[in-house]
Amino acid sequence: MEAESKVIHFMGLGFSLNIIISVLATCIIVFLFCFIATRKLAVRPISKSQLAIEYLVDFIRNMISSSLHWKVGQQFHLLGFTLFLFVWVANMLGLVFILNIDGHSYWKSPTASPIVTLGLALMVILLTHYFGIKENGFKEYFMNSYIRPVAPLMPIKLLEEFTNTLTLALRLYGNIYAGEILLGLIASLANSYGLLTWVVGIPLQMVWQGFSIFIGSIQAFVFTTLTMVYLAHKIEAE
């Protein structure tokens, strides 16, 4: 059975402690990586950390360019970089270790919580509306988003705003949550009958962790790519 998170209450609202801890840890890891990788930038010799962040910057640039003209999309470079790095690190946290104390969970991937993924998805959708209005003005934004190419499609496009938010959030949540559940089941199998099941459980755990790293990376890529696609729909004319 999955350990429950300890809930703390503030002003009548409940907050899961493991989510608070893991989100803070994700932010700290992302900050430290960027700080260390850019602390001593040089043309030659180039450190491995600088090479890593330069590769990541180019990777995000190519991702944005596939959805938006770079002249327009370059303003979202930092957004895409931060979003990809945050989601990727958040996806990986639950693979490192499990921390359960007295039946309470104090560590998990933040993106294994629907609240976190829904919050990220809602933020992304709201940003697409904001930048759409900022770039084109409200009238042109409204015409481009809901009236063109044919006005009768407006109800479907309004419904699409809701479904985009749900699918963006639940796709990420479902993949990461399922991965952590299976890791927990494999760990339980490994501990069930001592040495006999350890022989089977440990290799299986290693294989599934490798697969989870691949899935977590793909989901970070998909989340960031779809963010840029949704931005393109609001900013660029059909």
UniProtKB/TrEMBL annotation:
One example of a Gene Ontology biological process annotation: proton motive force-driven plasma membrane ATP synthesis
InterPro entries: ATP_syn_F0_a_bact/chloroplast, ATP_synth_F0_asu, ATP_synth_F0_asu_AS, F0_ATP_A_sf
First-listed, main subcellular location of the protein, grouped into a coarse class: membrane
SUPFAM superfamilies in the cross-refs: F1F0 ATP synthase subunit A
Cellular component terms (Gene Ontology): plasma membrane; proton-transporting ATP synthase complex
Subcellular locations according to the entry: Cell membrane; Membrane
UniProt key word Transmembrane helix: yes
MF GO annotations: proton-transporting ATP synthase activity, rotational mechanism
Similarity section: Belongs to the ATPase A chain family.
Functional description taken from the UniProt entry: Key component of the proton channel; it plays a direct role in the translocation of protons across the membrane.
Protein name: ATP synthase subunit a
Gene from which the chain derives: atpB
